[in-house]
Amino acid sequence: MNHFLRLELSRYVRVIPRFGATVACSTLMGLYFFTFVGRFDDSSDSAMLREPAAVITLALTVAFCVVVIYGTVVYQRFIVSDYIGNRRIQLYSYPGGRSPLFLAKNTAYALAIGGSAAVGFVLSTAVFLTFESFIPVSDAHVTARTWSATLTMVACITLLTLSAITIAGFIGVRRRSTVSSIVTAVILIVLFGNAVAMSLNAPPWVPWTATVGSMALALSLLAVQNLAIQQDEVL
């Protein structure tokens, strides 16, 4: 398992910086887009965009959509493709077994992509809040509570991203189709994205409840797929 994990992690060396940069750029673009809309649009419909918490939540929702699609493509490349078609047959020759390799692949993915996403989200929101503290675009004030709420949302959105990608990947492996995983990712973007957006007017425990639920579902599906791989090896 440790050997497999080290080997799988080494495959993400080039992907990690690109993925992190995509996360940071998409988040920053969303942050400043909504900030400028709130700054220059005086209509009552844009009133909430003058609040940093609302801007950050909406920007993270937009970034979530981009990152889930990109992350699903990466998951297809490094995991799904190994369990469909001819590559699936070749894995039977692995001395350590296909099940430990499957777990190592998913662990490496979570560490590499999850860590990269977290860094991208944290850096982009930190840059935004720092500039808003000293050279503000909006009229809102950045407080310690704003920083705390932002870190909470970043943690939730990172875990939701991993959950959505894992569930989409499970469908792809299960149906042995890369198209299925992309379609599932789009559906999950709609469901999870709406959940994140609705958390604007919800108590703080709501996004955490959605996050824990999605993580539990993703881990359960991974366990189901791992068991199916073990049974397939026996047969």
Automatic annotation (TrEMBL):
Transmembrane annotation, as ranges: 12-34, 54-75, 108-131, 151-172, 179-200, 206-229
Alphabetical UniProt keywords: Membrane, Transmembrane, Transmembrane helix
Name of the protein in question: ABC transporter permease
Organism: Auritidibacter ignavus
Lineage, uppermost ranks: Bacteria, Bacillati, Actinomycetota, Actinomycetes, Micrococcales
